[in-house]
Amino acid sequence: MKLSRRTLSMALLAALAAPAAHAEVPIDVIAGSEVSFEGLLQADANWFHSDLANLNGSATDGKDGDFKLRRAELVLKGKGPGNFEWVLGYDAKADKWLDTNLKYKIGGNSSNFVQFGQFKQPNSLEELSSTKNNDFISKATITNTWAVARRVGVAYGMGDANWSVTGSVFGRELTRNLGAGNGFGLRGTWAPINETGNLLHLGLSYARYDAELGAVGNNVQDTQRWRARPNADLSGVRLVDTGNLTLADKVATTGLEGMWVKGPFKLQGEYMRSTTGRGGSFSDFTGKGAYLSALWNVTGETWGYKAGTPTTPLPNEPESGMWQVGLRYDTIDLNDGSLNTSGATPVVTGVLGGKMDAWTLGANWYLRSNFKLAANYVKVTSSKYNSTAKAILHDDPSVVEFRAQFFW
Known about the structure:
This is Porin. By secondary structure, the chain is mainly β.
């Protein structure tokens, strides 16, 4: 769905003119379950200042930007009967199921539970955090590349306010032709400091699953491919790309995470290292990356903490809203090989998927309890071996991003 500048502006003005609503809409008590309705609408605009590749993904349309409805999430939730909770979510824009699961809180404690259905797997602080409260418009490159999001499975978790351990076994996504591969995930968190406005969080995760099944030529075989957009969700181009890793077996990703909150300031970072095992004469492929971000609530609010993730507060002053400014450094390395240029023809050993770094400067404005406007400027530097040019090419574009969001 394409949105013109006029359509996007009118939708935004209509949303801002609407009266404030509650964070969720209670519906009724049905069979002992308190049912409520939530929704999230996001409209994005990206303006590309391309370098080598046309980030808009088309060399003929003559446009340097893109405008789209990003998400249209509709979610039913239920509390009860007893210690049961359930959720049924669907994204009408992406035409896919979101969280769709049943949870039982052991002893009524939300930190001790058994969960069945589709849910986000226990890995990545950023992936597990609420989408509507993302610090930046595009998630970090390693999150989009290696974090295991929603899969159908079973999970067991235990802990308290300061620590948690969660394990799961999972298969494919509920919506067909999306994420697949049977596996398991583990995540442990510890908050040695956990006070209002004073928080230190540490986490470790590990996920291992089967590589995806795909067609290569006339053969059907396990194939994995890693690639990344330039921190711009609407870009049709990936600047780093391993290509098809054939005869792939298992994917194993280890993640380290940390977060420090002091009053209105938050530092957050993650590191991931992912290895794709391969059969035959192929060597295993290992990629790695990290991000580090800093966020400041200019209007003085601080963050909460629940289930090993931060929670974003409502504005202290609903009429003027909450203002945030942030800066993030983001890097990913998909090179796991070497390039020999001593002969007449360069020789590549292993995989040279490229390396990409990005700086993102952002601002967010949360107005009342239902609206958010976000603006980002992204500067990217990348390098990747090009087999046609027989050289390493550098592509260093920039992107201006804007998001209008309504949620309830």
